[in-house]
Design a protein that fits this description.
The chain has about 375 residues and is mainly α. The protein has three domains: about 110 residues, Rossmann fold (3-Layer(aba) Sandwich); about 55 residues, no CATH class; about 150 residues, no CATH class. About 40% of the residues lie in helices and about 5% in strands. The protein contains twelve helices and three strands, in the order H-E-E-H-H-E-H-H-H-H-H-H-H-H-H. A three-stranded mixed beta sheet has the order 1-2-3, covered by helices on one side. Helix 2 packs antiparallel against helix 3 and helix 11 packs across helix 12. It starts with 7 loop residues before the first helix and ends with a helix.
Protein backbone atom coordinates (compact mmCIF):
# COMPACT_ATOMS: atom_id res chain seq x y z
CA UNK A 1 0.00 0.00 0.00
CA UNK A 2 2.81 2.43 0.75
CA UNK A 3 3.85 2.18 -2.90
CA UNK A 4 0.44 3.47 -4.03
CA UNK A 5 -0.49 6.08 -1.39
CA UNK A 6 0.32 7.44 2.05
CA UNK A 7 -1.81 5.99 4.83
CA UNK A 8 -3.84 8.59 6.70
CA UNK A 9 -3.27 6.61 9.88
CA UNK A 10 0.48 7.27 9.63
CA UNK A 11 -0.15 11.02 9.44
CA UNK A 12 -2.46 10.92 12.45
CA UNK A 13 0.17 9.05 14.50
CA UNK A 14 2.83 11.61 13.62
CA UNK A 15 0.53 14.50 14.59
CA UNK A 16 -0.42 12.82 17.87
CA UNK A 17 3.25 12.45 18.82
CA UNK A 18 3.61 16.24 18.73
CA UNK A 19 1.15 16.56 21.67
CA UNK A 20 -0.63 19.55 20.16
CA UNK A 21 -3.74 20.91 21.84
CA UNK A 22 -5.61 20.47 18.53
CA UNK A 23 -4.82 18.55 15.34
CA UNK A 24 -6.75 19.21 12.12
CA UNK A 25 -6.73 16.92 9.09
CA UNK A 26 -8.52 18.01 5.89
CA UNK A 27 -8.57 15.51 2.99
CA UNK A 28 -9.83 16.83 -0.32
CA UNK A 29 -9.47 13.57 -2.28
CA UNK A 30 -11.60 12.64 -5.25
CA UNK A 31 -11.14 8.86 -4.61
CA UNK A 32 -12.38 7.63 -7.95
CA UNK A 33 -10.31 4.44 -8.18
CA UNK A 34 -7.69 4.40 -10.97
CA UNK A 35 -6.79 0.80 -10.07
CA UNK A 36 -10.11 -0.90 -10.64
CA UNK A 37 -8.30 -3.62 -12.63
CA UNK A 38 -6.49 -4.83 -9.51
CA UNK A 39 -8.58 -7.40 -7.58
CA UNK A 40 -7.64 -6.03 -4.15
CA UNK A 41 -8.20 -2.35 -5.07
CA UNK A 42 -11.60 -2.23 -6.69
CA UNK A 43 -13.45 -0.06 -4.11
CA UNK A 44 -14.15 3.68 -4.51
CA UNK A 45 -14.15 6.27 -1.77
CA UNK A 46 -12.36 6.82 1.50
CA UNK A 47 -12.87 4.47 4.42
CA UNK A 48 -14.41 5.83 7.63
CA UNK A 49 -11.81 7.18 10.04
CA UNK A 50 -11.95 7.69 13.78
CA UNK A 51 -10.44 10.86 15.20
CA UNK A 52 -7.94 10.38 18.04
CA UNK A 53 -8.43 12.65 21.09
CA UNK A 54 -7.87 16.32 20.26
CA UNK A 55 -8.28 15.77 16.50
CA UNK A 56 -10.68 17.12 13.86
CA UNK A 57 -10.89 15.16 10.58
CA UNK A 58 -12.71 16.50 7.52
CA UNK A 59 -13.29 14.66 4.23
CA UNK A 60 -14.48 16.16 0.97
CA UNK A 61 -17.31 13.64 0.90
CA UNK A 62 -18.86 10.97 3.10
CA UNK A 63 -17.01 7.65 3.64
CA UNK A 64 -17.38 5.42 0.61
CA UNK A 65 -18.38 8.36 -1.59
CA UNK A 66 -16.60 10.07 -4.48
CA UNK A 67 -15.88 13.80 -4.49
CA UNK A 68 -16.20 15.99 -7.60
CA UNK A 69 -13.21 17.79 -9.10
CA UNK A 70 -15.33 20.65 -10.42
CA UNK A 71 -14.72 22.71 -13.55
CA UNK A 72 -12.44 25.39 -12.08
CA UNK A 73 -8.97 25.41 -10.59
CA UNK A 74 -10.35 24.14 -7.26
CA UNK A 75 -12.95 21.59 -6.31
CA UNK A 76 -16.37 22.63 -4.90
CA UNK A 77 -15.14 21.47 -1.48
CA UNK A 78 -11.97 23.61 -1.52
CA UNK A 79 -13.77 26.67 -2.91
CA UNK A 80 -16.47 26.59 -0.24
CA UNK A 81 -14.00 25.91 2.56
CA UNK A 82 -11.72 28.80 1.53
CA UNK A 83 -14.72 31.14 1.55
CA UNK A 84 -15.84 30.27 5.08
CA UNK A 85 -12.47 29.78 6.81
CA UNK A 86 -11.75 33.50 6.78
CA UNK A 87 -14.81 34.54 8.78
CA UNK A 88 -13.61 36.02 12.12
CA UNK A 89 -14.71 34.33 15.33
CA UNK A 90 -16.44 31.37 13.67
CA UNK A 91 -15.91 28.01 15.42
CA UNK A 92 -14.44 25.25 13.26
CA UNK A 93 -17.62 23.19 13.64
CA UNK A 94 -19.71 26.07 12.25
CA UNK A 95 -17.24 26.69 9.41
CA UNK A 96 -17.63 23.13 8.15
CA UNK A 97 -21.39 23.18 8.63
CA UNK A 98 -21.67 26.31 6.47
CA UNK A 99 -19.26 24.84 3.91
CA UNK A 100 -21.26 21.58 3.76
CA UNK A 101 -24.42 23.48 2.80
CA UNK A 102 -22.63 25.27 -0.04
CA UNK A 103 -21.07 22.07 -1.42
CA UNK A 104 -24.37 20.20 -1.38
CA UNK A 105 -26.01 23.11 -3.22
CA UNK A 106 -23.18 23.36 -5.76
CA UNK A 107 -23.22 19.61 -6.48
CA UNK A 108 -27.02 19.28 -6.32
CA UNK A 109 -26.76 16.81 -3.48
CA UNK A 110 -24.23 14.53 -5.17
CA UNK A 111 -21.53 15.31 -2.58
CA UNK A 112 -21.88 15.65 1.18
CA UNK A 113 -18.71 16.72 3.04
CA UNK A 114 -18.13 14.73 6.21
CA UNK A 115 -16.21 15.35 9.43
CA UNK A 116 -15.56 13.70 12.76
CA UNK A 117 -14.19 15.42 15.82
CA UNK A 118 -12.77 14.67 19.23
CA UNK A 119 -11.51 18.21 19.89
CA UNK A 120 -11.07 19.12 23.55
CA UNK A 121 -10.69 22.88 23.02
CA UNK A 122 -12.43 25.61 21.03
CA UNK A 123 -10.80 26.50 17.72
CA UNK A 124 -11.30 29.29 15.18
CA UNK A 125 -9.29 29.79 12.00
CA UNK A 126 -9.49 33.61 12.37
CA UNK A 127 -9.86 35.23 15.78
CA UNK A 128 -12.76 37.59 16.27
CA UNK A 129 -11.69 41.22 16.01
CA UNK A 130 -11.71 43.01 19.36
CA UNK A 131 -13.15 46.49 19.08
CA UNK A 132 -11.38 49.39 20.74
CA UNK A 133 -13.26 51.54 23.23
CA UNK A 134 -13.68 54.22 20.56
CA UNK A 135 -14.98 51.73 17.99
CA UNK A 136 -17.48 50.35 20.51
CA UNK A 137 -18.69 53.86 21.32
CA UNK A 138 -19.01 54.67 17.61
CA UNK A 139 -20.99 51.50 16.96
CA UNK A 140 -23.34 52.15 19.88
CA UNK A 141 -23.94 55.74 18.80
CA UNK A 142 -24.40 54.74 15.16
CA UNK A 143 -27.08 52.20 16.14
CA UNK A 144 -28.93 54.97 17.99
CA UNK A 145 -28.61 57.42 15.10
CA UNK A 146 -30.00 54.87 12.63
CA UNK A 147 -33.10 54.44 14.77
CA UNK A 148 -33.72 58.17 15.28
CA UNK A 149 -33.14 59.19 11.62
CA UNK A 150 -32.64 62.81 12.64
CA UNK A 151 -30.45 64.94 10.31
CA UNK A 152 -28.90 66.91 13.18
CA UNK A 153 -27.89 63.79 15.07
CA UNK A 154 -26.47 62.18 11.91
CA UNK A 155 -24.22 65.21 11.37
CA UNK A 156 -23.15 65.17 15.01
CA UNK A 157 -22.16 61.52 14.63
CA UNK A 158 -20.02 62.34 11.59
CA UNK A 159 -18.38 65.19 13.46
CA UNK A 160 -17.72 63.03 16.55
CA UNK A 161 -16.29 60.06 14.61
CA UNK A 162 -15.01 61.37 11.24
CA UNK A 163 -12.72 58.33 10.76
CA UNK A 164 -15.39 55.75 11.54
CA UNK A 165 -16.20 53.12 8.93
CA UNK A 166 -19.87 54.07 9.36
CA UNK A 167 -19.38 57.61 7.97
CA UNK A 168 -20.26 56.66 4.33
CA UNK A 169 -23.44 54.98 5.59
CA UNK A 170 -24.18 58.06 7.72
CA UNK A 171 -23.97 60.38 4.68
CA UNK A 172 -26.18 57.99 2.72
CA UNK A 173 -28.75 57.97 5.55
CA UNK A 174 -28.59 61.77 5.79
CA UNK A 175 -29.31 62.11 2.08
CA UNK A 176 -32.25 59.73 2.38
CA UNK A 177 -33.76 61.46 5.43
CA UNK A 178 -33.41 64.95 3.92
CA UNK A 179 -35.03 63.75 0.69
CA UNK A 180 -37.97 62.39 2.69
CA UNK A 181 -38.41 65.67 4.58
CA UNK A 182 -38.17 67.78 1.42
CA UNK A 183 -40.71 65.51 -0.29
CA UNK A 184 -43.02 65.91 2.69
CA UNK A 185 -42.77 69.71 2.45
CA UNK A 186 -43.51 69.55 -1.25
CA UNK A 187 -46.81 67.71 -0.72
CA UNK A 188 -49.97 69.78 -1.21
CA UNK A 189 -51.31 71.00 2.10
CA UNK A 190 -53.93 68.70 3.58
CA UNK A 191 -55.80 71.73 4.95
CA UNK A 192 -57.50 72.24 1.59
CA UNK A 193 -59.62 69.11 2.18
CA UNK A 194 -60.95 70.22 5.56
CA UNK A 195 -64.61 71.13 5.82
CA UNK A 196 -65.63 74.67 6.76
CA UNK A 197 -66.93 73.39 10.09
CA UNK A 198 -63.68 71.61 10.94
CA UNK A 199 -61.51 74.53 9.84
CA UNK A 200 -63.58 77.00 11.87
CA UNK A 201 -63.38 74.82 14.99
CA UNK A 202 -59.62 74.36 14.68
CA UNK A 203 -59.02 78.09 14.22
CA UNK A 204 -61.09 78.73 17.36
CA UNK A 205 -59.16 76.03 19.23
CA UNK A 206 -55.82 77.58 18.24
CA UNK A 207 -57.06 80.95 19.38
CA UNK A 208 -57.90 79.56 22.82
CA UNK A 209 -54.65 77.58 22.96
CA UNK A 210 -55.57 75.32 25.89
CA UNK A 211 -55.27 71.57 26.32
CA UNK A 212 -59.06 71.25 26.79
CA UNK A 213 -59.64 73.12 23.53
CA UNK A 214 -57.37 70.83 21.51
CA UNK A 215 -58.94 67.78 23.16
CA UNK A 216 -62.35 69.10 22.09
CA UNK A 217 -61.17 69.20 18.47
CA UNK A 218 -59.75 65.66 18.69
CA UNK A 219 -63.02 64.35 20.14
CA UNK A 220 -65.05 66.06 17.40
CA UNK A 221 -62.76 65.03 14.51
CA UNK A 222 -60.80 61.89 15.53
CA UNK A 223 -59.62 61.49 11.92
CA UNK A 224 -59.48 65.17 11.07
CA UNK A 225 -57.15 66.94 8.70
CA UNK A 226 -55.44 68.76 11.57
CA UNK A 227 -55.03 65.61 13.66
CA UNK A 228 -51.22 65.60 13.78
CA UNK A 229 -50.94 69.28 14.60
CA UNK A 230 -53.59 69.05 17.32
CA UNK A 231 -51.83 66.10 18.92
CA UNK A 232 -48.51 67.91 18.81
CA UNK A 233 -49.98 71.03 20.41
CA UNK A 234 -51.65 68.92 23.07
CA UNK A 235 -48.41 67.05 23.77
CA UNK A 236 -46.60 70.37 24.18
CA UNK A 237 -49.21 71.61 26.63
CA UNK A 238 -49.17 68.32 28.58
CA UNK A 239 -45.63 66.97 28.19
CA UNK A 240 -45.59 64.99 31.44
CA UNK A 241 -47.87 62.10 30.51
CA UNK A 242 -51.03 60.80 28.78
CA UNK A 243 -54.24 62.79 28.45
CA UNK A 244 -56.04 60.78 31.13
CA UNK A 245 -54.77 58.46 33.81
CA UNK A 246 -57.02 55.42 34.29
CA UNK A 247 -54.99 54.25 37.29
CA UNK A 248 -56.56 54.93 40.72
CA UNK A 249 -53.11 55.30 42.27
CA UNK A 250 -52.04 58.78 43.37
CA UNK A 251 -49.92 60.80 40.96
CA UNK A 252 -46.14 60.60 41.51
CA UNK A 253 -44.33 63.41 43.26
CA UNK A 254 -43.53 66.16 40.71
CA UNK A 255 -39.88 66.44 39.67
CA UNK A 256 -38.32 69.82 40.49
CA UNK A 257 -37.99 72.01 37.40
CA UNK A 258 -34.20 72.23 37.80
CA UNK A 259 -33.88 68.45 37.50
CA UNK A 260 -36.51 67.87 34.81
CA UNK A 261 -35.47 66.25 31.54
CA UNK A 262 -34.94 68.76 28.71
CA UNK A 263 -37.94 67.58 26.72
CA UNK A 264 -40.23 67.90 29.75
CA UNK A 265 -39.84 71.71 30.12
CA UNK A 266 -43.03 73.71 30.09
CA UNK A 267 -43.47 75.19 26.62
CA UNK A 268 -45.59 78.27 26.07
CA UNK A 269 -47.09 78.26 22.57
CA UNK A 270 -46.79 81.45 20.50
CA UNK A 271 -49.79 83.61 19.75
CA UNK A 272 -50.69 82.97 16.10
CA UNK A 273 -51.19 86.71 15.60
CA UNK A 274 -47.63 87.57 16.64
CA UNK A 275 -45.17 87.98 13.75
CA UNK A 276 -41.83 86.34 14.48
CA UNK A 277 -38.64 87.60 12.79
CA UNK A 278 -34.99 86.60 13.01
CA UNK A 279 -34.27 89.45 15.42
CA UNK A 280 -37.45 89.75 17.47
CA UNK A 281 -37.33 88.43 21.08
CA UNK A 282 -39.32 85.23 21.38
CA UNK A 283 -42.16 85.32 23.89
CA UNK A 284 -43.05 81.62 23.51
CA UNK A 285 -41.15 78.37 24.10
CA UNK A 286 -39.42 77.09 27.23
CA UNK A 287 -37.25 79.05 29.67
CA UNK A 288 -34.16 78.56 27.51
CA UNK A 289 -35.81 79.92 24.37
CA UNK A 290 -37.97 82.78 25.67
CA UNK A 291 -36.54 86.32 25.45
CA UNK A 292 -33.89 85.16 22.93
CA UNK A 293 -33.94 85.86 19.19
CA UNK A 294 -33.61 83.18 16.51
CA UNK A 295 -30.29 84.74 15.48
CA UNK A 296 -28.96 84.45 19.03
CA UNK A 297 -30.12 80.87 19.47
CA UNK A 298 -28.66 79.46 16.26
CA UNK A 299 -25.30 81.00 17.12
CA UNK A 300 -25.41 79.86 20.75
CA UNK A 301 -24.42 76.66 22.48
CA UNK A 302 -26.70 73.66 23.19
CA UNK A 303 -28.03 73.38 26.73
CA UNK A 304 -28.56 69.62 26.59
CA UNK A 305 -26.79 66.77 24.70
CA UNK A 306 -28.19 66.52 21.13
CA UNK A 307 -27.83 62.72 21.38
CA UNK A 308 -28.31 60.82 24.62
CA UNK A 309 -24.97 59.55 25.88
CA UNK A 310 -22.87 61.92 23.71
CA UNK A 311 -19.61 62.75 25.59
CA UNK A 312 -19.66 66.22 27.16
CA UNK A 313 -16.57 67.39 25.30
CA UNK A 314 -18.39 66.97 21.98
CA UNK A 315 -21.26 69.35 22.74
CA UNK A 316 -20.71 71.43 25.89
CA UNK A 317 -19.51 74.96 25.14
CA UNK A 318 -19.65 74.13 21.42
CA UNK A 319 -21.42 76.43 18.96
CA UNK A 320 -24.46 75.09 17.15
CA UNK A 321 -23.05 76.70 13.99
CA UNK A 322 -20.10 74.28 14.15
CA UNK A 323 -22.37 71.51 12.84
CA UNK A 324 -24.99 73.50 10.90
CA UNK A 325 -24.79 75.86 7.93
CA UNK A 326 -27.64 77.94 9.32
CA UNK A 327 -28.06 80.66 6.74
CA UNK A 328 -31.42 82.38 6.76
CA UNK A 329 -32.44 80.55 3.58
CA UNK A 330 -31.39 77.12 4.84
CA UNK A 331 -33.08 77.67 8.20
CA UNK A 332 -36.28 78.80 6.48
CA UNK A 333 -36.32 75.63 4.39
CA UNK A 334 -36.01 73.53 7.53
CA UNK A 335 -38.69 75.59 9.30
CA UNK A 336 -41.08 74.87 6.43
CA UNK A 337 -40.90 71.22 7.49
CA UNK A 338 -42.28 72.14 10.92
CA UNK A 339 -45.01 74.29 9.31
CA UNK A 340 -46.39 71.38 7.31
CA UNK A 341 -49.22 69.62 9.15
CA UNK A 342 -48.24 66.31 7.54
CA UNK A 343 -44.83 66.31 9.22
CA UNK A 344 -45.52 68.27 12.41
CA UNK A 345 -44.43 65.17 14.34
CA UNK A 346 -40.87 66.40 13.68
CA UNK A 347 -41.44 69.05 16.35
CA UNK A 348 -41.70 66.37 19.02
CA UNK A 349 -38.08 65.26 18.50
CA UNK A 350 -35.72 66.30 21.27
CA UNK A 351 -33.93 69.59 20.59
CA UNK A 352 -30.59 70.66 22.10
CA UNK A 353 -32.35 73.71 23.59
CA UNK A 354 -34.80 71.42 25.35
CA UNK A 355 -37.91 72.37 23.40
CA UNK A 356 -39.80 75.37 22.08
CA UNK A 357 -37.46 76.56 19.31
CA UNK A 358 -39.12 74.40 16.67
CA UNK A 359 -42.54 75.79 17.62
CA UNK A 360 -41.26 79.33 17.03
CA UNK A 361 -39.54 78.33 13.78
CA UNK A 362 -42.82 76.95 12.50
CA UNK A 363 -44.63 80.24 13.09
CA UNK A 364 -41.65 82.15 11.65
CA UNK A 365 -41.98 80.08 8.47
CA UNK A 366 -45.74 80.65 8.33
CA UNK A 367 -45.05 84.39 8.45
CA UNK A 368 -42.70 84.25 5.49
CA UNK A 369 -39.34 83.87 7.30
CA UNK A 370 -38.90 87.61 7.91
Amino acid sequence: MDLLAVEARSILLQMASAHNRANIVILDACRNNPFEGLPDLKDNGLAEMKAPPGTFIALATAPGGVALDGLGANSPFTMALAEHMGQPGLAIEQVFKNMRKDVMAATRGQQTPWDTSSLLTDFTFVAEKVLSAEDRAALQLWNTVQQLRDPVQIMLFVRAYPESKYVPDAYSLLEQVMAEEIAAVAKPSAQTSASDEERALFEAVKGEGTADAFQTYLDAFPKGVFLEEARERLAALKPSGPLTDPSPEPAPTPVPVAEAAPDKDEIKLPDEAVVITMTSPLIAGNDVVRDQTISQLINGSPKFPPIEGLPDELWKEQKCSNCHQWTKEALCQQAQVYADAEVSRSINKQHPYGGGLKVNLRQWAKGGCQ
